[in-house]
Predict the structure.
Amino acid sequence: MYRWKRAQEGKSFNERTDVITEFRGRGDEVHMYPLSFAEFMSVYSGTKQDGWNEYMLYGGLPPVMNISSPEEKINFLKLLFEETYISDIVGRHNVRNRAELEELLNILSSAIGSLTNPTKLSAAFKSVKQKTISNATIKRYIEYLCDSFLIDSAVRYDIKGKKYIDTPVKYYFTDLGLRNARLNFRQLEGTYAMENIIFNELKIRGFNVDVGVITLNKTNEKGHGIRKQLEIDFVCNRGFKRYYIQSAYAIPDQAKMEQEQRSLMLTGDFFKKIIITKDAPAPYYNDDGVLVMSVYDFLLEEGSLDI
């Protein structure tokens, strides 16, 4: 609420550092997320399928819920992005090259849920835009975007080695409506949008969320040792609880099921393993002990992970 109050007063749009500075010793920081899907549906009058489509498109910022026209929703989100978020970041941090920052936003918006790092992003600038931008500058820009709550990150975690891998990292948008506005509502891929929504829901529920990595050492047909890494979309920790979660938009057959759960079966421990798909019957455990549920059951039931 403090964020919105400052914006409405025409003052600088607060970031994490502002909260810490202004209220040091006089309170606790509470991160206010956009509406979860369950909160969204509590005031939405249509079906959950229609609500999903709208939530995936326009996100969960509360003011958007009070706007009926699609055109007005789009205009609001674009204006909010340009005149509040970007302008505030540029002014607050004295960003000299706004075009670089905006181009980085375009790249990150197009690649939600993809592994990347400043080196890859710098190469993308050079190949696509014929511009040279240093790794240090890109890292600094990303810090600004995270500090403004526009994006959040998931770091890779070696499950068997029990250690973090610093790079590359996955980035997700805190609100999909803002991400879509940045791309003029193009690139509306359901697969990546669902993964982003699952990530946000896990953060809302208070989990620390990492990307799981399983490293396999094998021998090829020539007898040479090869190293392969499998990925688990989300390793979720909260207190003594841990869950391994795969986001799978569709599982049309058994072969796809085996592909999705392969990394889950190689963790070497007994923490709960879950596959969330777009459409599924009632939640069930398959023959390998993996809990399979629809994204609706996951999002609309707070205790869904403990079924």
User: Anything to note?
Assistant: The beta strands are 115-116, 151-158, 163-173, 208-219, 225-238, 241-248, 272-277, 284-285, 291-294.
